[in-house]
């Protein structure tokens, strides 16, 4: 028999202990997340040349007004959304396909898993430089164009043509990121009981039917999680345009984060960069909340 | 079971990686290798000596060794002023500049730091660096090439001082040119008064564009290299990037003459005479027949080229025949946070004396800024051959990049515009004058907005 008053006391103590344990994490979150966000919002209301903190001028919502009519901002937003909308399904489907491949039991499967995962362990800067060389428009130097011309095809200006630059970045980003999602899918696949497949196969279900009616429903939770994290990661696209195209050609790979960086650090318009960052923050928060709500609803 | 373990370990690794990636997105990595011990921002030590710290980009071994040796020598000879240096990794990017910007906002600048030539005006206009005119007499400065003094001067005051300069000229692969029927002897015989003209360069590029290599190389990189290496073409054709006082871009970079210059360059790309995204060391690797290359390429080619090569003066516009050449290099400046400007000035004077300038220039393989340094043994290689040609250009035709506090805005916007123009030319195989005009108008708008917002009185 337990004593109710003693139990509630213990519960209270546990609750207090829990709060105490969260203090270091809360402090770090506050110092490195909440405070910078508040500062970002504050500075977005000022005209602030980054190297002149002694000479900042309050301009109210002027930076936000400018942002509304700034075609570069809208272009960067459009590019970011374009990248996200294409890379998320591409990367997720690729990751699921790879996970299905490496979930089979055959000799040497671990080698394939490691191979598919290895781009994740390499720095994005290194990968971007590598792919810049692969994509080089000159068939004498670019491996992909060398292959295309050997087939009698015309070389393609992958990164120096506004029509192909972003798609080229999407392809390499999907290739680089799929390994990580593959591991999550793999864990999800291992959570689906084998006997379901056995029962289905006894009932005469073919592989496609098994995939549609067992694998996909079994991975529902995993898919939602993977889509959400991929989406948030995709919105933050920066390294690839920074290294490979510097936002060009014709601004076709200029993303929001890249735009914030160039405005804030290269051009020194810190106040304006903060305004763009604040708007970007709101977009990501709204997107995450909507995704969360959507997931909760479908559950 | 074992496989599960491996999978979970990989998952943990991936998670850790993604967390690290999140945390590491800002700023740049810094290699805080210290040549002479711990750098300190303290202005005076307990024994009364003044401590000075220097930041400069990390460089090759010979340069790092030069710093170690020279600082040890200075510190021994001057116990009252102790100097230490922190080498900051530049990563071929803006990591170094970002570190300076961060230090400005946190009032954490070293006493002396190196800045790239065209950014001197920006740092000076924003009071990040202080004048050092008092430490360099007219007589001292008359020994420096005009271009470096001009680049380091803002509003009539000297703000920085440099030991080295740089230049660009036209390298050519004699084997390829001979194979393609170009008169190599004629190019070899050109002088500073009779350089190749644009049309001659275009003709050579056309003749030398084959299935195996392109005729020329005009894109050093898609950033500052476009301003640095190509501005003289604009000046040679009659208009500079910006007005002499650094305040107006309208009628300069978007003038008829500038559009013509951009058209000429875009034609090189449209006709396939030059690659829009050349690989690194394209000339060295035999992938192009000629190249607008830097003075630093001489030592690289001497060490590694497996073909016969030459270098001739920077080409001139057919219309004006005016010879102009690029220049500019990193310079030392004294920061606003320096508590002992006199000590810093004294040190810089010593650092850029004739002998130190000569040995530093030799170590970093760049032309020296001081004319007297060329009499030193360390600069013996500059008496003849390709290096002497670069010095001749520096002494006679070098023009510094615009001296305006809005230079970084101008330069990034200009690089973006030129990349767009080249991209359009490469995809359509033709040159659209109206598009060039609109892109260059865009550069004017961006520059003027920044200048008017922060610097116009």
List keywords for this structure.
heterodimer, A: 299 residues, mainly alpha, MetI-like fold, flat, B: 457 residues, alpha+beta, D-Maltodextrin-Binding Protein, domain 2, 2 domains, 17 helices, 44% helix, globular
Detail the topology: elements first, then pairings:
The complex is a heterodimer of chains A (299) and B (457).
Chain A: H1 4-43, E1 46-47, E2 57-58, H2 62-68, H3 71-103, H4 109-121, H5 124-134, H6 143-150, H7 165-190, H8 194-202, H9 207-218, H10 220-235, H11 239-245, H12 256-266, H13 270-298
Antiparallel strand pairs in A: 1-2
Helix pairs in contact in A: 1-13, 3-4, 3-7, 3-10, 3-12, 4-7, 5-11, 7-10, 10-13, 12-13
Chain B: H1 2-23, E1 50-57, H2 61-77, E2 81-88, H3 95-105, E3 112-116, H4 120-125, E4 129-130, H5 138-142, H6 146-151, E5 153-154, E6 157-158, E7 160-161, E8 168-173, H7 174-179, H8 184-188, H9 198-207, H10 224-236, H11 256-270, E9 290-294, H12 297-304, E10 309-312, E11 330-335, H13 341-351, H14 354-364, H15 385-396, H16 407-428, H17 433-454
Parallel strand pairs in B: 1-2, 1-3
Antiparallel strand pairs in B: 3-11, 4-11, 5-6, 7-11, 8-9, 8-10
Question: What does the model show?
Answer:
- The complex is a heterodimer of chains A (299) and B (457).
- Chain A has helices spanning 4-43, 62-68, 71-103, 109-121, 124-134, 143-150, 165-190, 194-202, 207-218, 220-235, 239-245, 256-266, 270-298, and strands at residues 46-47, 57-58.
- Helix content of chain A is 74%, strand content 1%.
- Chain A is an all-alpha fold and 299 residues long.
- Chain A has a two-stranded antiparallel sheet with strand order 1-2.
- Chain A has 13 helices and two strands, in the order αββαααααααααααα.
- Chain B has 17 helices and eleven strands.
- In chain B, strands 1, 2, 3, 4, 7 and 11 form a six-stranded mixed beta sheet that branches. A three-stranded antiparallel beta sheet of chain B has the order 9-8-10. A two-stranded antiparallel ribbon of chain B has the order 5-6.
- Chain B is an alpha+beta fold and 457 residues long.
- Chain B folds into two domains: 50-166 and 328-396, D-Maltodextrin-Binding Protein, domain 2, CATH 3.40.190.10; 168-326 and 406-454, D-Maltodextrin-Binding Protein, domain 2.
- The longest helix of chain B has 22 residues, at 2-23.
- The interface between A and B is large, with 49 and 50 residues.
């Amino acid at each position: 028999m337990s004593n109710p008053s003693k139990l509630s006391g213990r519960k209270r103590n546990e609750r207090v202990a829990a709060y105490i344990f969260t203090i270091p994490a809360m402090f770090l979150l506050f110092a490195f997340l909440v405070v910078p966000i508040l500062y970002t919002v504050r500075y977005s209301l000022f005209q602030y040349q980054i190297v002149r903190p002694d000479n900042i001028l309050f301009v109210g919502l002027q930076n936000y007004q400018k942002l509304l009519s700034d075609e570069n901002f809208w272009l960067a937003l459009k590019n970011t959304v374009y990248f996200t909308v294409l890379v998320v399904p591409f990367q997720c489907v690729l990751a699921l396909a790879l996970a299905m491949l490496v979930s089979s039991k055959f000799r040497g499967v671990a080698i394939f898993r490691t191979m598919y995962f290895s781009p994740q362990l390499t720095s994005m800067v290194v990968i971007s430089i590598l792919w810049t060389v692969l994509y080089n428009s000159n068939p004498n130097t670019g491996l992909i164009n060398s292959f295309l011309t050997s087939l009698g095809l015309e070389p393609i200006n992958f990164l120096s043509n506004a029509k192909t630059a972003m798609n080229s970045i999407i392809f390499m980003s999907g290739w680089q990121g799929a390994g990580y999602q593959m591991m999550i899918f793999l864990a999800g696949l291992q959570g689906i009981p084998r006997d379901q497949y056995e029962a289905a196969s006894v009932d005469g279900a073919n592989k496609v039917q098994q995939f549609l009616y067992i694998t996909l429903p079994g991975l529902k939770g995993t898919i939602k999680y993977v889509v959400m994290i991929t989406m948030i990661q995709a919105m933050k696209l920066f390294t690839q345009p920074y290294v490979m195209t510097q936002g060009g050609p014709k601004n076709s790979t200029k993303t929001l984060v890249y735009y914030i960086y160039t405005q804030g650090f290269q051009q020194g318009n810190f106040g304006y960069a903060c305004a763009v960052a604040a708007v970007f923050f709101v977009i990501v928060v709204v997107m995450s909340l909507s995704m969360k709500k959507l997931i909760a609803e479908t559950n | 079971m074992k496989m599960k373990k491996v999978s979970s370990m990989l998952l943990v690794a991936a998670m850790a990686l993604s967390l690290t990636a999140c945390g590491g997105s800002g700023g740049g990595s810094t290699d805080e290798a210290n040549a002479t011990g711990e750098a300190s921002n303290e202005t005076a030590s307990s024994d009364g000596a003044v401590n000075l710290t220097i930041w400069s980009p990390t460089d090759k071994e010979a340069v790092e060794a030069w710093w170690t040796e020279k600082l040890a020598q200075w510190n021994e000879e001057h116990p009252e002023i102790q100097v230490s240096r922190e080498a900051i990794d530049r990563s071929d990017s803006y990591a170094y500049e970002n570190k300076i910007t961060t230090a400005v906002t946190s009032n954490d600048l070293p006493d002396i730091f190196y800045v790239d030539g065209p950014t001197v005006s920006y740092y000076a206009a924003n009071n990040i660096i202080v004048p050092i005119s008092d430490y360099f007499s007219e007589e001292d400065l008359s020994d420096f090439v005009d271009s470096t003094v001009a680049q380091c001067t803002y509003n009539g005051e000297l703000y920085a001082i440099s030991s080295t300069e740089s230049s660009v000229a036209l390298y050519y692969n004699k084997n390829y040119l001979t194979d393609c029927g170009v008169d190599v002897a004629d190019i070899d015989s050109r002088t500073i008064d009779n350089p190749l003209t644009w049309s001659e360069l275009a003709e050579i590029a056309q003749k030398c564009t084959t299935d195996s290599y392109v005729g020329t190389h005009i894109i050093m990189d898609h950033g500052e290299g476009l301003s640095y290496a190509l501005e003289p073409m604009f000046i040679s054709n009659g208009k500079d990037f910006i007005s002499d006082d650094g305040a107006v871009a309208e009628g300069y970079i978007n003038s008829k003459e500038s559009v013509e210059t951009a058209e000429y360059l875009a034609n090189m790309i449209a006709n396939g005479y030059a690659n829009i995204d050349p690989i690194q060391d394209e000339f060295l690797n035999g992938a192009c027949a000629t190249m607008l290359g830097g003075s630093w390429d001489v030592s690289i080619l001497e060490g590694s080229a497996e073909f016969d090569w030459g270098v001739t003066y920077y080409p001139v516009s057919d219309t004006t025949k005016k010879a102009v050449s690029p220049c500019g290099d990193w310079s030392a400046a004294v920061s606003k946070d320096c508590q002992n400007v006199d000590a810093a000035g004294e040190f810089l004077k010593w650092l850029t004396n004739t002998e130190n300038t000569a040995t530093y220039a030799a170590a970093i393989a760049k032309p020296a800024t001081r004319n007297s340094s060329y009499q030193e043994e360390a600069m013996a290689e500059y008496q003849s051959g390709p290096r002497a040609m670069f010095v001749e250009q520096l002494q006679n035709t070098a023009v510094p990049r615009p001296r305006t506090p809005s230079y970084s805005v101008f330069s990034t916007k200009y690089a973006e515009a030129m990349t767009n123009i080249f991209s359009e030319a490469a995809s359509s195989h033709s040159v659209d004058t109206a598009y060039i005009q609109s892109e260059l108008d865009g550069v004017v708008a961006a520059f003027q907005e920044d200048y008017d917002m922060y610097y116009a009185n």
